[in-house]
Each structure stands twice: as structure tokens, then as C-alpha cells.
């Protein structure tokens, strides 16, 4: 199956509310029924096809920082790809937004030690932003309530173009001159 052709549902979850696969039960727990009108952290579940979430793929994905001191490999499939326009992400990336791809944490393996900086998100959760201590490349983010997820900075992936975004968050902070992407679900803030 290729990216963008899958069946199934995407659930909304997390610090920024990225859609994730329902079978992973990332926020609803193992006993909660997940139906088409169920709400999970404040947003309706949507079909994966409807929002363009990434499809099933058995892969070996790699990435690294600019200088190569931090490398990583991911053996599982991506759950979703998204853009965040919040001012913290703008400052952390030194750019207009942050493009992230989310995987199960158990599928992410990193080689090399990162530095980190903590900030507090809108939810009140701490966001730990990991970066290469040598070249400064942002690598990934962690949120305690989502410790089961690896939020990887797409620009560090070997092939970032393989992961088009399906969601865009904090559009209220989006720079006005950025072009509007088609087939992307947008939220003024997080999706909560």
C-alpha cells in the first residue's frame, strides 16, 4: 500500500492534537469504543483517507542532524505528519513553522546524546525539545502525557518529502504570507 491510500480511522491525540491510528489506542485506552462520532481530546475522529494521514507501511526510516552526531532509525510506520505554527515552534526551528512526523516511541532508536530545552505548552504539559549539542539541529520533541509517541522533526528525516502534512495547527500564529496547503485540516490553536 502506498502513502495516502489506506482505509481506517485517525484519532486526534496529544499536545497539539495530531491524528493517530485508532488501533494503537493512544488516548482512549483499551476499553473505550472508538466510533465515527467519538470525541478524543476534543476533536472528532476522521477517516484517514479524508484527512490524508499516512498509510500502513512496514519501513525502516532513518535520519540525522546536520553534522551527523545524532542519527536515528525508525522501524515502524508513521502515524501522522503535521505542521505547527505556534510561536514556540517558530522560535525552536528558527523558521515559520515546525514540520513533524509522529511515530510510536517504541519504534524510534536514537544514537548520540541530545541536549534539551523545556517549555510549557497550552495544555500545561511540559514539552521537551531535543537538539544536537554540536550543530543545533532540532531532532524531536517529547510530552509526558504522550510518552508513547516520538515526535520527530521532519527536516532531519532522510526523505522528508515522503511525509506530506495532513494537519496544520496554531494557524492563528501562522505567518500571513505562507501559501495555503490543499487537503490539510487546519486549527486556529491545538485541536482540543
TrEMBL record:
Q: Which residues form the signal peptide?
A: none
What is this protein's record name?
Answer: GFA family protein
**Keyword terms:** Lyase, Metal-binding, Zinc
Give the UniProt family note: Belongs to the Gfa family.
Domain (CENP-V/GFA): give its ranges.
61-164
